[in-house]
Write a sequence for this structure.
């Protein structure tokens, strides 16, 4: 963090004309938090169109050069739900932006996909991409230009309300899932939006322009880069068109006006070429966001409850932070017009990059246009593939209908919402089976197949004489006892819900108040288990729940963790429970977070109460989130990150670690660091990337476990940061996601897996890396995974690549990724704690 003197020097280094309009000074921190302030990084770097963005950026610049200031402002300022901003003179009809990360929100005849957390639980990149592609087809079909997803946070607090929208508690897993989702969505020409940038990890005090309290996420630079930024970097590297900044503050400065994170990190360090939009009413000022690099104000008005916000009211132009006010800011010199030009160029760059000028469909959100195609098949497949088998004793699962005489199905989570699947606005209630959390991250169910319905029809299709009893009242324990004591098989369904903070469900203001089951789930399960020797538990939850009350009960023979599976939830659970039909699924889902024995075992929790305007949330655990914390502190979790059983068994053998050969020019880029010239002007970013590079040399070729590679991979950097006005200028502008060599493959880890059991199935293999001792990393971090299908007795060699970035750490001094020297240990296996194979290599 620069001192005050350095900041002053940075400001003085700017051209005189700009110096007096650069009013950004770090927002002050309260006593005791003085080090947690964000530096000011100005001016905003204008987009540099390179690579496969070059044509789009050039076209955008050409287009924007023909616009009037009023027309440009129109593109920067949204209009709430009623309709997009337009440029009538040019017959440009504006952009339609719509939620959500799991389907098209507030629309008819669309699909309700499994939530992000379920996509992550499949650990299957192809399935995750297929989900993105199907969602993208629906957004496009409905005329939505910009899909407001994917969402990626880090699940730092297990109870945080929106964790289910994202991809779990590990940056690598989230990064892969984020990129795959974006690739899928954008393959349909829809602009994807990665959100919420950044450290948007709880709902209480999350902020927004109407909020009286906005929390500050205080994160050190290493943790920021290695955990929270990682999936955003992967998103930018893969070409995401839009980034949404968050409601909260980072180091005291609100995300949408934090020049360090937008100008410095997104646009300089990560070379982002698309647009940055605000979350809905996240802006708390007009001038600062413009200077800090925000490109689009959504939805255009000042605040919920302040200024026009009714559907279709176009007055946002005069009653929002921007609109007519932005014209005034340009005219009175507060915001350079070049900055406005760049906002619009970035927006049109994304538009052209995704080919949206070529016959994009009309908006039809509420019309009968049906875009569901056969996506229900994929939704069912992902629902089953994301189901995690946590316990299975005496081969309780899979069930065989022929062995069942009488089955009890218990719990409100098994049945329908008595008021209808979409009865509660934005799913803001907890009634019936839970297949989605609540808030803006939702879509309307076109229909909802509940478990009771699906299980009943499945059993009856095979043997209509099986007696099926159900009790959907969670608190009628007498009836539960009666029914379960008569049954040979009992299926208990229980749930835990959460969502976005603008809706309160049963006293839960977005974030969960606890991490136990809802609706008396623990008592329901215990009561059932006391009278039914074959009690099988199915949980639909938004995140971890503690299950100590009954997990070791001998009558609880199996536990399935089904997450938030979307419209086909009932069919998906049938595919796993019975594994007998055309869609039979041998479970292979793996936990995308740790399930602790006690809430206190987690490193951090939601901050529920605070009396100050900026509640301080300091990420004191640093890199030690989720499984890393349990590893560092030797805490035994109930079920570790990455855990999940199968109906078959797999053997692991023959670990090999091989050096990958790659192009020398890529090597050069890895070691090149640049300094953004001190004289950067808002209209002309000059970058010199000419620092002499040392080389990466590798000698060893291939090597098996227990030996070591003597590859000397030395990456010496020599950043000349002293002349830079920016502390985040260490990577060449124009390389998406940072220096491209970071994304090139360095090593290939291979091993053999064999299906040693009696059923075909998928195995999710995971690769964890232990960094050299002195590198300050947790005991092990996920750096690769692969899901593979194997017939009984079949074996197969699995290869997992390691990129330069995967073996690098963020160096806070040089502001670059560096490879620590020393010995790395590679662990391979089926969870973060079941790692039968070990090898090493030395850098
Ligand atoms: C936040 O403050 C910490 C501590 O000074 C610093 O390491 C980090 O880089 C800052 N991050 C941002 C985004 O301002
Ligand atoms: C801005 O958009 C509105 C509709 O949203 C339109 O009526 C108006 O003419 C546009 N202004 C310009 C200058 O194009
Ligand atoms: C310039 O205009 C903006 C928007 O109306 C206003 O907020 C700001 O105070 C003005 N600045 C000056 C120096 O007049
Ligand atoms: C489309 O949605 C409308 C409105 O809900 C409904 O009446 C219609 O049946 C739907 N069409 C199809 C094919 O699902
Ligand atoms: C946890 O919260 C849920 C939902 O509000 C509630 O039903 C349940 O009783 C709470 N559990 C405990 C142990 O307080
Ligand atoms: C398990 O279920 C049987 C009924 O089949 C019951 O008799 C027994 O007490 C139960 N065991 C426990 C530990 O509750
Ligand atoms: C950027 O600055 C350089 C050097 O002053 C100049 O040659 C070039 O034309 C400028 N480019 C733009 C786009 O203004
Ligand atoms: C960095 O540059 C300085 C000054 O040119 C030089 O003395 C030093 O050896 C360089 N370091 C590396 C690692 O190249």
């Amino acid at each position: 963090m620069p001192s005050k003197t350095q900041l002053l020097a940075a400001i003085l280094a700017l051209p005189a004309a700009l110096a007096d309009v650069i009013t950004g000074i770090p927002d002050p921190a309260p006593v005791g938090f003085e080090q947690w302030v964000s530096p000011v990084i100005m001016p905003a770097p204008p987009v540099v169109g390179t690579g496969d963005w070059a044509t789009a950026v050039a076209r955008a610049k050409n287009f924007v050069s023909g616009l009037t200031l009023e027309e440009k402002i129109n593109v920067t300022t949204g209009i709430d739900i009623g309709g997009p901003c337009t440029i009538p003179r040019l017959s440009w009809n504006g952009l339609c932006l719509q939620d959500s990360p799991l389907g098209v929100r507030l629309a008819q005849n669309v699909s309700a996909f499994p939530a992000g957390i379920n996509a992550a639980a499949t650990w299957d990149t192809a399935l995750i991409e297929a989900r993105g592609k199907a969602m993208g087809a629906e957004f496009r079909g409905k005329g939505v230009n910009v899909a407001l997803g994917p969402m990626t946070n880090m699940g730092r607090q297990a109870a945080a309300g929106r964790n289910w929208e994202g991809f779990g508690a590990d940056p690598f897993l989230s990064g892969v899932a984020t990129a795959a989702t974006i690739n899928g969505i954008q393959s349909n020409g829809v602009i994807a939006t990665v959100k919420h940038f950044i450290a948007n990890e709880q709902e209480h005090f999350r902020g927004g322009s109407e909020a009286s309290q906005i929390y500050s996420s205080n994160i050190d630079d290493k943790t920021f880069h290695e955990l929270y930024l990682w999936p955003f970097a992967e998103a930018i590297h893969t070409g995401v068109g839009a980034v949404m900044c968050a409601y909260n503050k980072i180091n005291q400065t609100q995300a949408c006006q934090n020049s360090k994170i937008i100008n410095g990190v997104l646009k300089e360090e990560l070379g982002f070429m698309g647009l940055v939009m605000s979350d809905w009413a996240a802006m708390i000022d007009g001038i600062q966001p413009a200077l800090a690099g925000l490109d689009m104000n959504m939805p255009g008005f000042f605040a919920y409850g302040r200024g026009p916000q009714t559907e279709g009211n176009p007055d946002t132009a005069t009653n929002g932070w921007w609109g007519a006010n932005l014209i005034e800011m340009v005219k009175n010199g507060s915001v350079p017009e070049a900055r406005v030009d760049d906002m619009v160029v970035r927006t049109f760059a994304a538009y052209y990059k995704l080919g949206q000028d070529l016959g994009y469909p009309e908006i039809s959100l509420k019309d009968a246009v049906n875009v569901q195609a056969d996506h229900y098949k994929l939704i069912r497949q992902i629902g089953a593939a994301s189901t995690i088998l946590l316990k299975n004793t005496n081969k309780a699962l899979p069930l065989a209908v022929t062995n069942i005489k009488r089955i009890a199905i218990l719990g409100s989570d098994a049945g329908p919402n008595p008021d209808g699947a979409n009865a509660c606005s934005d799913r803001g209630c907890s009634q019936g089976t839970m297949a989605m959390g609540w808030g803006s991250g939702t879509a309307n169910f076109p229909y909802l197949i509940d478990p009771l319905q699906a299980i009943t029809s499945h059993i009856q299709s095979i043997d209509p004489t099986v007696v099926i009893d159900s009790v959907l009242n969670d608190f009628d324990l007498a009836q539960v006892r009666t029914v379960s004591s008569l049954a040979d098989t009992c299926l208990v369904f229980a749930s835990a819900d959460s969502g976005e903070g603008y809706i309160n469900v049963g006293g839960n203001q977005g974030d969960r108040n606890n991490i136990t089951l809802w609706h008396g789930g623990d008592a329901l399960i215990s009561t059932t288990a006391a009278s039914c020797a074959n009690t099988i538990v199915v949980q639909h939850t938004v995140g971890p729940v503690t299950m100590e009350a009954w997990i070791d009960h001998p009558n609880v023979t199996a536990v399935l963790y089904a997450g938030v599976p979307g419209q086909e939830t009932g069919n998906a659970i049938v595919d796993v429970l019975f594994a007998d039909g055309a869609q039979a699924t041998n479970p292979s889902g793996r936990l995308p977070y740790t399930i602790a024995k006690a809430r206190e075992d987690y490193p951090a929790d939601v901050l529920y109460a605070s009396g100050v305007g900026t509640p301080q949330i300091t990420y004191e655990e640093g890199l030690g989130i989720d499984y890393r914390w349990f590893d560092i502190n030797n805490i035994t979790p109930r079920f570790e990150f990455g855990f999940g059983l199968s109906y078959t068994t797999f053997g692991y053998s023959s670990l090999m670690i091989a050096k990958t050969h790659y192009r020398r020019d890529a090597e050069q880029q890895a070691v090149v660091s640049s300094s953004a010239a001190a004289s950067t002007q808002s209209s002309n970013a000059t970058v010199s990337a000419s620092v002499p590079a040392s080389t990466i040399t590798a000698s060893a070729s291939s090597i098996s476990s227990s030996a070591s590679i003597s590859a000397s991979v030395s990456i010496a950097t020599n950043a000349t940061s002293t002349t830079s006005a920016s502390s985040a200028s260490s990577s060449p502008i124009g390389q998406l996601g940072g220096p491209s060599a970071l994304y090139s493959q360095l090593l290939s880890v291979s091993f053999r897996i064999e299906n040693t059991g009696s059923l075909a199935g998928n195995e999710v293999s995971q690769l964890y890396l232990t960094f050299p001792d002195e590198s300050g990393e947790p005991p092990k971090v996920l750096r690769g995974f692969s899901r593979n299908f194997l017939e009984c007795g079949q074996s197969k060699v699995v290869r997992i690549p390691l990129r330069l970035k995967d073996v690098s750490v963020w160096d806070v001094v040089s502001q670059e990724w560096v490879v620590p020297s020393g010995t790395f240990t590679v662990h391979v296996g089926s969870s973060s704690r079941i790692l039968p194979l070990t090898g090493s290599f030395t850098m």
Notes: The chain is about 25% helix and 20% strand.
